[in-house]
Amino acid sequence: MKKKIVSLLFGAVLTAALLSGCAQASSGSTPAAGQAQEEAPAAEEQEEAPAAEEQEEAADNTSEAAEAAGNEEDELAQILSRGKIIVGIEGTYPPFTYHDDNGDLAGYDVDVARSIADKLGVEVEFVEAAWDSLLIGVDTGKFDTVINCVSITEERQEKYDFTQPYYFTSRQVVVRGDDDSIQSEDDLEGKKIATNLTNAYIDWYESHGAEVVGIDTSGEAAEMLLSGRVDFTSFSEVILADFLKEHPEADLKVAFVIPDSEAQVGIPFRKGETRLVETVNGILDELRSEGKLLELSEKYFEADYTVSVYERQ
Q1: 283 shares its domain with 149
Q2: Can you tell me the distance from the alpha carbon of 289 to that of 283, in angstroms, rounded to the nearest whole number?
Q3: Is residue 24 in a domain?
Q4: Quick one: DSSP state of residue 302?
Q5: HSE of 89 in the Cβ direction (CA atoms, 13 Å)?
Q6: Do 269 and 277 form a contact (C-beta atoms < 8 A)?
Q7: Does residue 69 sit within a domain?
Q8: Greatest extent of the chain over all pairs of C-alpha atoms, in Å
Q9: How many CA atoms lie within 13 A of 13 on its CB side?
Q10: CA-wise closest residue to 237 among 302, 299, 296, 295
């Protein structure tokens, strides 16, 4: 009986020892767990690299967003956002901007404006005004631009950014058919000219002694000339040809062509609208290469006025 009890006690002690050994083995694995915990920062460092890249990417996105926000403030972005470009015109200046027999707007510049709007993917809204107030409309933001035979001059370039020229012509001094008193610029002293007050050649007329009488339209200028209230006026070759076509009874003739008077017509925008000017220049290049500008010139002028006067000679 005692042997049996001793055996049982011995078995219990052996079991306890074995259990103690298992506990130490488990306890012996604790440093491995600790090692894993110590290695965790290394794993966190590996995770920080993508985080840094994300921060850099976020910074780039912020920069792009800031640039986009800046672009949203420029005129091109505003035009695209509203889906419409607002163009100032006279509407009384054939064959550039006028109303046809149905009362609809027509003309070379009207069609050029429509073609540009199509390329931009927007509508075009025409706002009619007197010539002398058209560029003021650009200044005040009433119009995005004026497409109405606006000659590119040094004075205007100081205030506006122009596109490349899309129309070229020369200036002619026009008199009554029975008047031979004006043959050259030397004969302008003391003579009166009917022209709008923003005519690019006013300084030239005045420097030769002419007195300027302000008018608003080419029709008004012709009327004043034919009635004898002025001695001469100045029309481009296209404007005179169109007027005589509409009024074959008008007794007018060309006295002389102003020397070095090629007028280059472009599209003015407010200063600093670089993206808009570059975009419209690209569109004009496309219209030229596609033959659209030539098509419109031949439609309204029966000739090609899309290249320099000197190239046509």
Answers
A1: yes
A2: 10
A3: no
A4: S
A5: 28
A6: yes
A7: no
A8: 160
A9: 6
A10: 302
CA distance 203 to 19: 115
Residue 55 lies in a domain: no
Distances from the Cα of 95 to the Cα of 90, 116, 279, 290, angstroms: 11, 18, 26, 22
* The one-letter amino acid at 100: D
Structure-token pair, residue 59: 């910074």
Question: How far is residue 100 CA from its own chain's centroid?
Answer: 28
State the total domains in the chain.
Answer: 2
210 and 81 within one domain: no
Phi, psi dihedral angles at 22 (to 5 degrees): -65, -40
Alpha-carbon distance 19 to 21, whole Å?
Answer: 5
Predicted confidence (pLDDT) at residue 280 exceeds the cutoff of 50: yes
| Residue 81 tokens, joined | 């956002």
The H or E element containing residue 219 is: helix 218-226
Reported pTM: 0.65
Mean residue pLDDT across the chain: 83
The confidence score (pLDDT) of residue 71 equals 52
Residues 89-101: tens digit of each pLDDT: 999 999 999 999 9
What is the pLDDT at residue 75?
97
For residue 62, tell me if it sits in a domain. Answer: no
